[in-house]
Design brief:
15 strands; three-stranded mixed β-sheet; Amidase signature (AS) enzymes; about 475 residues; eight-stranded mixed β-sheet; about 35% helix; 2 domains
């Protein structure tokens, strides 16, 4: 039965509909694997076994009656801890919120349940979803199933680890600085950061009835196949109740185009954030797949702006958004501290702190700069269908829970600042672009390496469609040996 645990959600749904396996059997299989493996991983931190089993049994009865609940009928799944699920805690890893119990499912959970999923638990995150690692004082540390001494990424680290270890059938995360994409890369699974505001975020928020959409931030799926991403995005995408009066979802897709029909650009490295040689090599390997398909690839094409300008704009908007999550007292204290900074201090630290307490005038200036970036990308994608880039400079790195300012990452045997890693996520995130991460196999240490496929706004099904074709070409999920 262990081979079932690593099938895609699409394959599981097919087996369920053919009655080759029951939802109850699948759920028991994942429960057994959690009992065996989760202690070492600490990926799944909240479970609802009784409720999930009742729904699984009802899913089986419905199939027996000839009913079809949808694309994921009876498929067990877990959910990132930051989503509201009625009756369960939503803490964002913050001890101050450990007793916060949701009273209603997040909108995306409702939509997935309407397609038949069986939600049976929640997966771990970093404090306030603000790290490339997933640990907190509420639930502890999550480990990478390919090497327990290393991080699975963050902030959707528990999501990616649970998928890779075969503890769940499907997952959803969120992303403002790579929080879907870097865990997908570190754990060798597929992940999709949608076009900003394509998926309604209601119910993915700190305590309080927050119905707005935070700047840059999105929600999206993680899975063991690209096809799962496509189905999940189609399930969760679409206008909210207000927008439905005048808007209708109509996403373009690849139609009959193949890899050889696409116009491909490649951005394999950058002075702002150099990547390990092995990461660059994987980008080149995927590039070669397009060349082998008969496509001429442009490895020097760039949009009409400097990467430093894009990253500075991203940093300023990101920090303002993240600081909005701070308790009022902490924010006021930070404002007072920033007021004492030397006006001539132009260090990265000072710039980051100023961005965290930026005035609306300063924020709006950066928002206007972002608008120019978006139009630059729009012009770029008139000539190219997709862009290939790294998502992180290295494979998964060892746990490091020291002070943020003292952390470093070893890139090509050189110590680099920890938060420099956010460059590749921010390059596309600040401009609202969809990005699909695919696995490219394991390195010599047995660690996964991924890359991101980027497209123009609302080309989500195109970047996912390219991922599907690359998966068929061999760039697919590889289970961690110790969990097979």
């Amino acid at each position: 039965m262990s081979e079932l645990a690593f099938l895609s959600a699409t394959e599981l749904a097919d087996k369920l509909k053919r009655k080759a396996v029951s939802s109850e059997e699948l759920l028991r299989l994942y429960f057994d694997r959690i009992d065996k493996h989760n202690e070492s991983l600490n990926a799944i931190i909240v479970e609802t076994r009784d409720e999930a089993m009742a729904r699984a049994k009802e899913a089986d009865k419905a199939l027996a009656r000839g009913e079809n609940w949808g694309a994921f009928h009876g498929v067990p799944m877990t959910v990132k801890e930051s989503y509201n699920i009625a009756g369960l805690p939503t803490t964002w890893g913050n001890p101050l919120w450990k007793d916060n119990i949701a009273t209603e499912d997040a909108e995306s959970i409702k939509r997935l349940k309407a397609q038949g999923v069986v939600v049976f638990g929640k997966t771990n995150v970093p404090l306030m979803l603000s790290d490339f690692q997933s640990y907190n004082d509420v639930y502890g540390t999550t480990n990478n199933p390919y090497d327990l001494e290393r991080t699975p990424g963050g902030s959707s680290g528990g999501s990616a680890a649970a998928l890779a270890a075969g503890l769940t059938g499907l997952e959803i995360g969120s992303d403002i600085g790579g929080s879907i994409r870097n865990p997908a890369h570190f754990c060798g699974v597929f992940g999709h950061k949608p076009t900003w505001n394509l998926l309604w975020m209601r119910g993915h928020a700190p305590p309080g009835d927050m119905r707005g959409t935070p700047d840059i931030s999105v929600i999206g799926p993680l899975a063991r196949s690209a096809t799962d991403l496509k189905t999940a995005v189609k399930t969760m995408a679409g206008p909210d109740e207000i927008m439905t009066r005048g808007y209708k979802l109509n996403l373009p897709d690849l139609d009959s185009r193949t890899l050889g029909d696409l116009r491909v650009a490649v951005w394999a490295d950058d002075e702002m954030c150099h990547v390990d040689t092995e990461v660059r090599t994987r980008v080149e390997n995927v590039t070669q797949a397009f060349k082998d398909a008969g496509e001429s690839v442009d490895e020097s094409a760039r949009p009409d702006f400097g990467s430093n300008h894009s990253h500075e704009t991203y940093r300023n908007l990101l920090q303002a958004t993240m600081s909005a999550r701070m308790p009022d007292a902490d924010y006021e204290s930070l404002k007072a501290y920033v007021a004492t900074l030397d006006p001539d201090d132009n260090s990265d630290t000072a710039a980051t702190l100023r961005a965290q307490v930026a005035s609306f005038k300063d924020w709006k200036r950066n928002d206007e700069l972002r608008a120019h970036l978006r139009w630059n990308w729009n012009e770029f994608f008139k000539d190219y269908d997709v862009l290939l880039t790294p998502i992180m400079p290295t494979a998964a790195f060892p746990h490091d829970h020291g002070d943020f300012g003292e952390r470093t990452v070893l890139v090509n045997n050189e110590e680099r600042p920890y938060f420099e890693q956010v460059f590749w996520a921010g390059l596309t995130g600040v401009s609202c672009l969809p990005s699909t991460v695919i696995p490219t196999g394991l390195n010599e240490q047995g660690l996964p390496i991924g890359l991101q496929i980027v497209g123009p706004e609302y080309a989500d099904l195109i970047t996912i469609g390219v991922a599907e074709q690359l998966e068929t070409a061999g760039f697919r999920f590889t289970p961690p040996p110790d969990y097979i």
